[in-house]
Amino acid sequence: MATDAEAAQIPDSAQPPVKKREIFGWAMYDFANSSYTTVVISVIYSAFFTGHIIPADSELRDTYWTIAIVASTLLALILSPFVGAVCDYSGGKKRYLALSTVVCALSTMALFFVGPGDFYLAIVLIMISNAAFMIGESFCGSFLTDLANKKNMAMISGLGWGLGYFGGLMSLVLVMGLITATPEENMADFIQQNQIAMIAIGIFFALSAVPTFALVRERSTPAPGFENASFGKLMAAGLKEFADSYKLARRYKTLFKFFIAFMIYMAGLEIIIKFVGIYANQELAMTQKELTVVFLVIQVSAALGALAFGFLEARIGPKPTVMATIAWWIIGSLAIFFLPNIAEITGQKPVHIFYAISLIAGGGIGSIQSSSRTVVGLLSPASRSAQMFGFWGTFSRLAIILGLVVFGPMSDMLGRRYAILSVAAFFAIGGLVLLFVPIEEGIKEAEAADKEDAEAAKNGAAA
User: Fold this and answer.
1) Are 190 and 321 in contact (CB under 8 A)?
2) pLDDT for residue 276
3) Are 297 and 168 in contact, with CB atoms under 8 Å apart?
4) Each residue of 288-307: pLDDT tens digit?
5) Which residues have a Cβ under 8 Å from the Cβ of 239 and sit 6 or more positions away?
6) What does the alpha-carbon distance between residue 201 and residue 210 come to, in Å, rounded to a whole number?
7) Contact indicator for 61, 266 with CB cutoff of 8 Å
8) Which terminus of the chain faces fewer neighbouring Cβ atoms within 10 Å, N or C?
9) pLDDT higher for 395 or 366?
């Protein structure tokens, strides 16, 4: 018999048809939140934090940044399934998405008040903003089952990721226009411009997300008995659902098998995302300007890759597309490992070859995330979409921790070049596990669960 949460958000034939403007509005959230992860986490603020917020005599610059990222990851890891379950009970996906958006935008803008030496305040604000970003990403993904069907889910997911990378590109260009001073020329102006840039990114995120809340309908409904539930009642229900996670894993076996494969191969991708800037700067001696060019190249290729693989996914299916992108990344990571050899053979500068590798490999960033999100949507029953995408967020966070725990010590012991081999290993092992995940069987499991929930809701209404 279905639980109350399973009776919520049952697909209803009376629901209004999905319009193109809703799909655009949903995809615009990827456009909006990419500004945060691109500027704050990957390119601008991470370097500003380690270079100018941490005291000059500190030997723990990277350690403090790692603490901020790991703390935010753990916070999101703990909260993702819980808030997903609460969202499913209350039926208010847009409300919770809006809350996570506001928290992320405001805590990002609050970085304006962080100056040199205020690294503890910076860590707290990064922990809050990054956790809110991660949770909001899960809420955004949960709308996919409301807006897409089995046939067009891949295309819609690819559109979101594609727009997301263009959002990251535009926000990066915006910040480059704001930060014109250099530390060597005018340190005071440089610091102030970086602080102002955080306000700009918070505003960019919030304004770019407006189309999502203006155009996307709220199709989810509260579970029976939770129509006007207090926050305390929702918390108690969410805690109970979180405690029953093991039961969910047994009921939706295929989905959780996929989550294991996803966690492993995403660990490889998370290493690339978190360390590409450090690798390029310290191993290839790239300047900040050259690094920015690399990220611009990656943003463009990732956007095009998400759209291109979205078309491919619609033709061959999500699992073959994920496998293709995994193979793509194995080749890309091995190319980075053999970069000195390729440079010697071709007679080209390593930096120039790295540009080419970034252009090619970057196309796999958006595609592997987009096609993975599609698989989660296909394997998730509509009555538990927010909760299942909460688990998707949880395993994404686990991937970050797994990647950092393996790559960091390996890099210290063997050097970053040989640590890159762990990236190829994560992709290979994840792909191998994915081979044994029966996607079609999992789709049938989700469809059967929806039918059971619909029947339970009908019987409950009749009673």
Assistant:
1) no
2) 73
3) no
4) 667 777 777 777 777 777 67
5) 82
6) 14
7) no
8) C
9) 395
CA torsion 192-195-201-203 (nearest 10°) is -90
> What would the two tokens of residue 13 be?
């034939």
What pTM did the predictor assign?
A: 0.72
Q: Which long-range contacts (CB under 8 A, 24 or more apart) does 283-289 make?
A: 283/416, 283/417, 284/350, 284/351, 284/354, 286/351, 286/354, 288/47
Q: How far apart are CA 265 and CA 362, in angstroms?
A: 16
Whether residue 12 has pLDDT greater than 80:
no
245-257 b/e (C-beta count within 10 Å ≥ 16 → b): beebeeebebbbb
User: What are the structure tokens assigned to 147, written together?
Assistant: 């807006």
Query: pLDDT averaged over the chain?
Result: 81
CA distance 102 to 271: 28
What is the secondary structure of 200-263 as a DSSP string? HHHHHHHHHTHHHHHHS-----PPTT-TT--HHHHHHHHHHHHHTHHHHHHHTHHHHHHHHHHH
**Architecture of the domain made up of 4-462:** Up-down Bundle (1.20)
Which tokens hold the place of 357? 């590798």
8 Å CB contact between 8 and 221: yes
Tell me the C-alpha distance between 176 and 197, whole Å. Answer: 9
Indicate the residue type of 267. A
Helix, strand, coil shares of the chain as percentages rounded to 5?
85, 0, 15
**Distance between CA 410 and CA 264 in Å, rounded?**
17
Single-letter code of the amino acid located at 43 = V
* Residue pLDDT, tens place only, 160-204: 777 887 898 899 889 888 988 888 788 999 999 999 999 999 999
Token pair 């901020």 is found at: 68
Question: Locate tokens 């071709």: which residue?
Answer: 346
Structure tokens at 100: 């996570």
> Where exactly are the structural domains of the chain?
4-462
Residue 338: other Cβ atoms inside 10 A = 15
- 264-292 tens-digit pLDDT: 999 999 888 777 766 776 678 776 667 77
State the Cα–Cα distance between residues 93 and 86, nearest whole angstrom.
Answer: 10
CA 363, CA 347: separation in Å to the nearest integer? Answer: 25
pLDDT exceeds cutoff 80 at 230: no
**Amino acid (one-letter) located at 296:** L
Going by C-alpha positions, the residue among 24, 222, 195, 204 that lies closest to residue 101 is 204
